[in-house]
Amino acid sequence: MNDNLSFIYQNDLVVTELKGDDFIDLFNRLSTNNIPNQKNLITDSIFTNENGKFIDIVSLWNSNKYTLMISHASNHENLLNWIDKFTFEEDISISSPLKKKIISIYSANKNKDLNIFGEINKNEIINRKLEDIEITLSLTSFFNGHKVINLILDDDSKSIEFIESYMNSQNIFQMKESEFNSFRIKNMIPICGREVNNLYNPLEIGISHMIDFDKGCYIGQEVIARLDTYDKVQRKLMILDKKKDINIISSKGCYITSSDDDYCLAVVKKNILTK
Amino acid sequence: MNQVPVNTIEITTKAAEKVKSFAERDGLESFALKVAVKGGGCSGLTYDLEIIDSPIDDDEKTINQHGVEIRIPKKSFIFLAGTTLDFSDGLNGKGFVFSNPNAKKSCGCGTSFSV
Fold it and tell me: For A29, A87, A114, B27, which has the most beta carbons within 10 A of its beta carbon?
């Protein structure tokens, strides 16, 4: 992968629409981040269980027209059941998955400008019409702060053909799955089902920026706050060189979560590293 | 503390006086105390108190004690039956305190519990 921009379809993500007066309040009581009731803003937050382990990571797109929730398709039912379990009288409805595609555009070069759609502020939501195709786009970042443009558009052949053609005309080409895998390993970007699962907590995976330590309580908060306050996080996500770090890789307490030819991501017990 | 019958909840005199003072501060002559349970919080369920002046809903259970009308949504009552609501003041006071026999676990802040 070079410094040019590339795109990838985020096929493991699912888009639903949230309605009702209480979903922001409810999500604030169930997830790690402070979710402000502010239009045209994206907020990422993590649903955790009583032990502070992952249920799922969601991204809320609160625009003037609607609020979309982006979560992981492979974990969608689990997330809905979790939310339903704690919904009593709250005015909230979550739609069936919408027929939408999410495309991420980024560069291997962390500092490269991503202004192909004009100037966009981070976490701002922009609705735009390109010819007669409606897109919703935002500039956010991967877990490591690496900038990315996310597009949401209708999942139909006309929209897809148009956007692919548009991006190709801007020298933006689709990245292969294997290239994306190597890119995210190199940049320590965790994904659902690999690094994000109910075996680990957000502090171990290094995404504490999605945790607001000053907000009110939510499920898992006491565990997460204690781990952080007393520096008791026992494991951490690391990128390991398959040749140079063979001692760590072969140790008990090293759990490989993702791998390519040369490197892997692994959740490693800290006591191994001190030996 | 005396055991509260499971078909009701109780409010102590102290808590009732505090509710009345809040209502008076807000200029409410006719009011009720809504006691409800919401999902979430560190133990999974969270107490929710609100002074309201709206008409009674069909799905609310009503209890009158110490001059305070208490309204409890029926879905919440399942988790609150037998509860005593007290008020703890002073420098180390916790404010309104729930003593809930259904709660198996409570969190440190005292507003969240699990059953």
Answer: A29
Mean pLDDT of chain A: 92
At residue A161 the predicted structure's pLDDT band, cuts being 50, 70 and 90, is very high
Q: Is A26's CB within 8 Å of B39's CB?
A: yes
Which ipTM did the prediction report? 0.76
Please state the three-class secondary structure of chain B as a single string. Answer: CCCCCCCCCEECHHHHHHHHHHHHHCCCCCCEEEEEEEECCCCCEEEEEEEECCCCCCCEEEEEECCEEEEEEHHHHHHHCCCEEEEECCCCCCEEEEECCCCCEECCCCCEEEC
Question: Measured between alpha carbons, how far is A91 from A108 in angstroms, rounded to an integer?
Answer: 43
Q: Is the pLDDT of residue A164 over 90?
A: yes
pLDDT tens-digit readout, A189-233: 888 889 999 999 999 999 999 999 999 899 999 999 999 999 999
In A, which residues are within 8 Å of B112 by CB distance?
A: 217
Q: Is A244 left (phi over 0), alpha (psi -120 to 50) or beta?
A: alpha
DSSP code for A201: -
Identify the contact set of chain A against chain B, taking CB-CB distances under 8 A. Answer: 25-26, 28-30, 50, 85-90, 216-222
pLDDT at A2: 54
Domain identity same for A71 and A139: yes
Residue B110 scores a pLDDT above 90: no
Q: Tell me the three state secondary structure of residue A105.
A: strand
Residue A193 lies in a domain: no
d(CA A141, CA A132): 28
* Statement to judge: residues A167 and A225 lie in one domain: no
Domain annotation covers residue B1? no
Pick A222's closest partner by Cβ from B40, B76, B108.
B108
Judged against a pLDDT cut of 60, whether residue A130 lies above it is answered with yes
